Amino acid sequence: MNFTAVNFLAILVSGIAYMVVGFLWYGPLFAKPWMALVGFTEEDLRRGANPAMYLLTFVGALVAAYILALFISAAQMTTLVGGLEVGVLAGLGFVVPTFGANYIFLRRPLKLYLIDVGYQVVSLVIGGAILGIWR
């Protein structure tokens, strides 16, 4: 496998898209139910947020985008639909079951699982689309 046969600009854009989805997902879309389920208030979030958290999240998004780009390249799924398919498969095959095991043993609510997993799967699908079409 050629670890450099990817578009690094597309990976950067995919990482940024991951952060934008997170801003929307845990902001206007699901902030209130998510905060209620984890026991946070808006004040807790303001107090606990720092640039390092966002930087580390962005680094993780770039790693995920890079690995997704390698999967897309290896599978030769270099179209919009191909990228979407790889994103869906990565989400369903890796995120859904691994988060599921954690949430089952932590006895976390199903609604929290769906919010958190939904964010990851949607991010992978959007990233897959970007990486699939941007060669």
Describe the fold and architecture.
The structure is a single chain. The chain is mostly helical and 135 residues long. It has one domain. Helices cover 83% and strands 0% of the residues. The chain is built from six helices and no strands. α1 runs antiparallel to α6. The longest helix has 27 residues. The radius of gyration is 16 Å and the shape is globular. It starts with 7 loop residues before the first helix and ends with a helix.
Key attributes of the depicted protein:
135 residues
| Total beta-strand segments | 0
Shape: globular
Largest sheet, in brief, is:
none
Order of helices and strands: HHHHHH
* Structural category: mainly alpha
Low-confidence blocks of residues:
none
How many helices? The count is: 6
Helical residue percent? over 70%
| Number of structurally distinct domains | 1
- Any idea what the radius of gyration is? 16 Å
- Give the percentage of residues in beta strands: under 5%
**End-to-end distance:** 17 Å
- Mean pLDDT value: 94
How are the SSEs placed, and which strands pair?
Blueprint: H1 8-29, H2 31-38, H3 42-48, H4 51-74, H5 80-106, H6 110-133
Helix pairs in contact: 1-4, 1-6, 4-6, 5-6
Summarize the structure.
With 135 residues, the protein is mainly α.
